[in-house]
From TrEMBL:
Recorded name of the encoding gene: rsrA
Phylogenetic placement of the source organism: Bacteria, Bacillati, Actinomycetota, Actinomycetes, Micrococcales
Coiled coil spans: none
Domain of life: Bacteria
Protein name, UniProt field: Mycothiol system anti-sigma-R factor
Ranges where the Putative zinc-finger domain occurs: 25-58
NCBIfam families xrefs: antisig_RsrA (TIGR03988)
InterPro entries from the UniProt entry: Anit_sigma_mycothiol_RsrA (IPR024020), Znf_put (IPR027383)
Stretches the record annotates as Disordered: 1-21
Length: 105
């Protein structure tokens, strides 16, 4: 009997970010909409929120375009509806205020 049964189970675990790992800009932007829509799991919600709180560049106008593109791709549409664009702007404005990126404060 000489069979190797050591099947690595790390595959799935390796794909997920380690619990408590800091959230990077890529991930934050990628999940920005899910975050403002509260679609994330509690842990991710906290990680993304913590990053957005400290990283003003994730809330720049150009990031809004990235979020928009991802949403459009996800919804299989060619263009984001104007209402969606307005809503994203509103949400990101709220996030900016919460993150304290305004001059006052
Ligand atoms: Zn960032």
């Amino acid at each position: 009997m000489s069979g190797v049964e050591g099947t690595p189970l790390d595959d799935e675990a390796a794909r997920r970010p380690a619990a408590g790992a800091p959230c990077g800009c890529d991930e934050a932007v990628e999940r920005l909409w899910e975050y403002v829509d509260s679609e994330l799991e509690e842990l991710d919600q906290e990680r993304v929120g913590a990053h957005l709180h400290e990283c003003a560049s994730c809330l720049e106008e150009e990031q809004i375009e990235l979020v928009m593109k991802q949403l459009v791709r996800r919804c299989c549409q060619e263009e984001a509806p104007a209402t969606l664009r307005v809503r994203i702007h509103e949400q990101i404005t709220v996030l900016r205020l919460r993150a304290g990126t305004t001059p006052e404060g």
